[in-house]
Amino acid sequence: MMRLLPRRRRPTTDAAAEPVLTAPVARADRFTFQDLVVEATADIGSRPARLVMTVIGTVLGVGALVATIGFSQTAATQIQRQFDAVRGTQVVVAPGSAQSQSGDAVATARLPWDAAERVERLVGVEAATTIAELGTDGEDAITAVPVNDPAAPAVASPRLVAAGPALLDVLGGEFVTGRMFDGGHEARGDRVVVLGERAAERLGVNRVDSQPSVFIGDTAYAVMGIYAGLQSRGELSDAVVMPVGTARVERALAAPGDLQIRILPGTGAQVGTQAALTLLPDGPDRLEVSAPSSGSELGSNVQADVNVIFLILGGIVLLAGALGIANVTMLNVSERVPEIGLRRALGATRRQIGAQFVVESVVIGLLGGLVGAALAVLGIVVFALAQQWTPVVDGLVAVGGIVLGALVGLGAGWFPARRASSIEPVSALRGGG
Amino acid sequence: MSLIELRDVTRSFPGVPEVQALKAVNLTVEAGDYVSIVGPSGSGKSTMLNLLGLLDRPTVGEYRIDGVVTGVLDDDQRARVRAQWIGFVFQAFHLMPRRTVLENVMMPMLYSGVPREEREGRARAVLDRVGLGHRMGFHPPTLSGGERQRVAVARAVVSTPRILLADEPTGNLDEATSAEVMELFDDLRADGLTLVVITHDLAVAERAERRVRISDGRISELA
């Protein structure tokens, strides 16, 4: 128990003259902390209206603080979740690059041709494919019909890309019509392509049952399907995709390009490290791996942005709450002067009287903190449910709110308690009561 | 050895001019005495009671209880002496309105160190003794004045003090209820309790075998 008053120094009398008037009291029969709490709390509920008015400031203050922190946690988690849902499942492995003397970027490594098969064996990998951009020179324009029209304006061709059969499985997306090429086309180097929806629109292809073709330069490729709805690498919706095997034969593809992997959520860091080792055991550093980190940086950034204004406001309300408790406790002390005098006459010490009022105001503060934290948590849950979000509140924040309430009570009760303990029983017992 | 001994006790209150409420008072009370202190208001009666009850300290002089000089006791020690030696009865009762009669009577035992397991039994016994065994669960505001004062007496004696100090115990009571309380005092006296009763009511004062008159801060023993 906090000592409210410095213990008075005993008068300096020698041991022989020490007065022995009072009988020693067994420890169990003294005024214990338990007695103190019982005495301090016995009358708290006797005036409910006043109690409510006393507590309300603390309820609002603690509630505002807990709610502010809780809302920002909930919102941060929500934002994090929305971003992570897509971003958290994609890993890209690219060969490292360096600046050459002439200023061009040159690759310092090359992925193996079987990169996708290798990483698919790793735990956490759902699907993988290599994606390589194929350059199209002016003559190799991609057209639906080869027309030699010197007067026609130059039109930018769709991208030409070489990828594995798992492309859509990795990027998410579906076929509007037709189907994906498969391992057989890849192995044979068949002249087949699939089109992204925008590329298909530009080329005027909208169905595959008529077995349309597109021409890359002068070479015809059968269109097997048209896909749409990519969830990642949206630029590929404006691409013409051919199997890697075909690209090696027809377009002299020298390297498989980048490796795109779809992973299970939360395995990003591990797959990132292991993929590099699997692909280039002799020099994993030469690959550039971009993998989602397990703890989202985004989330912590948002959390750091917890609305400072609201915290300050909460603090001010709490301060007002403390003043409210101090005020009412002060009023209680003045009203209960006769009781204080009586207790002192009955043998209560100054410290016991002071402690009684401190405990009373701590309990009131605790009550305020409890109600405030509970209301705040309830508010967050209701709000989150209304938004169909997941409510997230750190349990420690709620507990911290309750403790804060008790501290407010302690701070607020200290001064009135000092006053109560300094009341002289003589003056207290004088008037009526 | 006397139970209470005041030697040349003066109590003065600072101010301009300085007020001497008690002037060089000498008083000895033996164990088992029944003393009444009478005097007009402003004569120093209350100051006397506060000094005797260790609620106040003499400015000059010495106050001994059972031979021990109380002047050397610190605040906490005086509180303990009050708890174990002295019972108070006030004119205004000073009962706690929101606690039951039984709770009111049990309160002093919190501070006086009566063994916990005895407390409730003692309180019930004392309440039976003052004739309020049927009112234990009542709250003071629902009782009559005489009943309230009897509760206050029960509270004053529950810790078995040696001295009972009563300050105008019948001041708020009518004649009939005064008589109840005075009979109770006679009973307690018969049990060996030392009583000091301050009053301005001569009928009450007459019950005591020793009557001390206080006037303008000086006391004189009446035959």
From TrEMBL, chain B:
PANTHER family: ABC TRANSPORTER ABCH.1, IMPORT ATP-BINDING PROTEIN. Residues 4-222 form the ABC transporter domain. It comes from the Bacteria. Pfam families: ABC_tran (PF00005). Gene3D superfamilies: P-loop containing nucleotide triphosphate hydrolases. Keywords: ATP-binding, Nucleotide-binding, Transport. SMART domains: AAA. It comes from Microbacterium aurantiacum. InterPro entries: AAA+_ATPase, ABC_transporter-like_ATP-bd, ABC_transporter-like_CS, ABC_transpr_LolD-like, MacB-like_ATP-bd, P-loop_NTPase. This is ABC transporter ATP-binding protein. PROSITE patterns: ABC_TRANSPORTER_1 (PS00211), ABC_TRANSPORTER_2 (PS50893). GO terms for cellular component: membrane protein complex; plasma membrane. The keyword Transport applies. GO terms for molecular function: ATP binding; ATP hydrolysis activity; transmembrane transporter activity.
